[in-house]
Amino acid sequence: MPTFEIGEKDFLLDDHPVQLVSGALHYFRVHPDQWADRLRKARLMGLNTIETYVAWNFHAPDPGTFHLDGRHDLGRFLDLVAAEGLHAIVRPGPYICAEWDNGGLPAWLFADGAAGVRRHDARFLDAIGTYYAQVLPVVAERQVTRGGPVLMVQVENEYGAYPGVPDEERARYLRELVALTRAQGIDVPLFTSDQADDEHLSRGGLPELHKTANFGSRSLERLAVLRRHQPTGPLMCMEFWDGWFDSWGLVHHTTTPEATAHDLDDLLGAGASVNLYMFHGGTNLGLTNGANDKGTYLPITTSYDYDAPLSEHGAPTAKYRALKAVIGKHAPVPDEDPAEPVPAPELDVVLPDRVALADVEHLLGGAVTRTTGLPPTADALRQWSGFTLYRTSVEADDAVVVVDEIRDRALVALDGEPVGVLDRTSHTGSVPLPRRAGTLTLLVEDRGRVNYGARIGEPKGLVGAVRTARRELTDWEARPLRLADAPALLADAFGAAPGGADAPLAGPSFHRGEFPGVAGTDHLLRLDGWTRGLAWVNGELLGRYSAQSPTRTLYVPGPFLRDGANELVVLELHGAARARARFVAAPDLGPTEA
């Protein structure tokens, strides 16, 4: 029987020392038809292992559902890893961070506030047990001990950084996760990973679990810290940060290939194993991006390019070549290099069809909920992501609307006329109202659930009271909108845009047009002149776009395209110069300096 063990100094594969040179590739951020291509390029760079998180909420978007097919087919992904001759490391959480919505934890788990978050809480642990029973058998049957690629499985993730849990409870919680993991037939080594400092490494693991560290620079110094906390066993950087993620409103983060290569050379030269985070970042398709809030709420961009060695659209970069050269100093690497991708097609697209969101909300919305008192949160409406529409009445002397908390952004209108924006990022919690009575609407957008820190699991929508200059607003109608499926739901609702495609347009409104394409051909969508919203190609929600920095293009995976006519639908929330878009030859991820 094949074996993988943690020795006194080395990882041992079938009793032979092995240095793991791994790269992170999240199957849930890459179209399944592209998995094999990305894995092949990983092998050609010299990697011998692939690491992936498993995002619980990706597989279980609603209570009582669990998907393991199509884009959710973890088993097929791991089989492709094996077919490429690579090993695998699986990190099933339950919490993953990963700049993913809610850190991978299902929002529905905390909707009523009864389940504790990342602690020894009976309801939380019971839900984890159910999750593990659904996903870990897929991993178990593909362990190296059963002839598969999986070498190791992680327990929790960067737990030393999670605040507010006493040390004794931390240990009880981690040991319960170990028991739940082993109960599903996982017999390969288990490990934890934490930032490479004394505080996090001392709080995030257990003596009986192998410790790994996360860092992106000063490799020898960080490995020394890890060795201090783990006197024996192989050293491994589980997240070697070779780039960084992007947030709306900031610059596009990059690191130089030379500096990254130098630090990797030090690490491999010290005999340590490594997992490049990321090898290939991919895309936060749909509404899957997370957010950070350390005093300022910053949602993550749709692109998760990460300045990784393999770019978002699958092209090898200068960093790919630099890291391959470093790996080649320490282990054999293939002579073959990936082919450079051809430029994406360039074409203009006219979007002549239009419909206002206000005219089709009944087609997009679930049932209207009427309440008195506080407005219901999006979570109370079982709306786990996207947009929620709130409606109430105001009087002429109300003068202003003020919210306790907005999560995360709301377009405020009176009788359909825009009057302002409430915004969590800018801490804008009030909007003046015209001096007239009417119907007040707030279109509230969940821009991504916090994926790191104490705010994981918080509700979305309107949170708390909503007041005017003279009273609290207490009579509410609320409706969740199913925008992910908007193109199909609105197929028969579009009409010709007044003024034509070159006239300015006002939102919130949907716009539709067609463009020629070839099945399997990647495209890059550019929406210059548009302000903020969502975009779909052939009914597939690409994600969010914004005139705000940094990202300027949206990646359209080739598998979304078909031969002949293809459909582009755009939801513009504010306004645009004209109803035209462009597909361009190369990505533009934005400025790298403010």
Quick tags:
alpha+beta, 3 domains, 30% strand, Jelly Rolls, six-stranded antiparallel sheet, eight-stranded parallel barrel, 594 residues, TIM Barrel, Beta-galactosidase
Break the fold down into its secondary structure elements and pairings.
Elements: E1 4-6, E2 11-13, E3 16-18, E4 21-25, H1 35-45, E5 49-53, H2 56-59, H3 74-83, E6 87-91, H4 122-140, E7 150-154, H5 167-182, E8 190-195, H6 198-203, E9 210-215, H7 219-229, E10 236-241, H8 257-269, E11 273-280, E12 291-293, E13 297-299, H9 318-330, E14 347-350, E15 353-356, H10 357-364, E16 369-372, E17 386-394, E18 400-407, E19 409-414, E20 417-423, E21 430-432, E22 438-446, E23 461-467, E24 475-481, H11 486-489, E25 495-496, E26 505-506, E27 509-517, E28 523-526, E29 532-537, E30 540-546, E31 553-556, E32 564-572, E33 575-576, E34 580-583
Parallel strand pairs: 4-5, 4-11, 5-6, 6-7, 7-8, 8-9, 9-10, 10-11
Antiparallel strand pairs: 1-2, 2-3, 12-13, 14-34, 15-25, 15-27, 16-24, 17-22, 17-24, 18-21, 18-23, 19-20, 19-22, 26-33, 27-32, 28-31, 28-34, 29-30, 29-32
Mean pLDDT: 97
- Beta-strand share of residues: 25-35%
Low-confidence stretches: none
Percent of residues in helical segments? 10-25%
Domain Beta-galactosidase galactose-binding: 508-566
Catalytic activity: Hydrolysis of terminal non-reducing beta-D-galactose residues in beta-D-galactosides
Organism: Isoptericola jiangsuensis
Active site: 158 (proton donor), 239 (nucleophile)
